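In the previous chapter we treated chains in isolation. Here, by contrast, the input contains four separate entities that must be folded as one system, with a combined length of 280 residues.
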Amino acid sequence: MVTTTARDSDLASALVQTMHRLQDLHAETSRPLGLTPQQAHLLCVLITGPLGMTELSRILSIERSSLTSMVDRLERRDLVARVANPADRRACRIELTPAGKDLAHQCHDAVVDRIATLTGDLPAATRTTLTTALKSILTQ
Amino acid sequence: MVTTTARDSDLASALVQTMHRLQDLHAETSRPLGLTPQQAHLLCVLITGPLGMTELSRILSIERSSLTSMVDRLERRDLVARVANPADRRACRIELTPAGKDLAHQCHDAVVDRIATLTGDLPAATRTTLTTALKSILTQ
DNA sequence: TATTGTTATACTCTATAACTATA
DNA sequence: TATAGTTATAGAGTATAACAATA
């Protein structure tokens, strides 16, 4: 059906543009805090608790070897620490230091604030629909 | 108001997660085509016509000096070309070669297909609401 | 003087392949 | 043998500062 096809690509296009807009916004909020967007993402993922290298690499969608050097750099700045895992001597767990935790929360709050500003003009009903729709997309 | 605050951060959180999901999807569709996500973005931006370095750097949100090396690499692969701008001898215009145009369209179509699959289960009314809401966010 | 684009330099991000240590 | 994480290496993305050519 022609109408449906047009509407699908409109939505896809809007989602792609939104992705780029949010990437920029994410970079703009990370930079003044002295972080790359990737570093900010890593720190924010650790807010809910320490993670092993393999699990963290899966969440961030990067290779473990790439993660090693990222963690090296953050550890040098005392933002994260490698902690031994008593249950498995091969493994370690990456956790936020107090300074890292503070910075992670600053990042998180700054991004949420910026996005809240962007979406503030939407009617409550639209925000609810949007949230529900996005969540359903994410669970696929 | 507590309820509004909670709803705002839910939406912000859903948008951030969607951004990351779409970034992964974008990387996954670019890679088999032999492109990084940034290269794919650059090629797709040029689909609508040639652009100067300054304008292109603004659209991609990167410094002109960073763009120079990206264009160098794509030019070496004959995907883009630097064309002289007769109106201004300092400037050049970056345009897609036939191979670049082909690849750009492949990228674009692949991403739209993947996203259409993700959003295919949403009711038509929700898709419309979503599209309208995202467009209104983007114009801010 | 201002603008367009490039060069030089230094980091960061990323993947692949090979490796060590432990399970 | 399989898994957790690292090392070595190479290439790509990015910013800052300084520059050449043209407007």
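The domain at 2-138 of chain B is CATH 1.10.10.10 (Arc Repressor Mutant, subunit A). Confidence is low (pLDDT under 50) at residues 1-6 of chain B. Compare these points with the single-chain example from earlier in the chapter.
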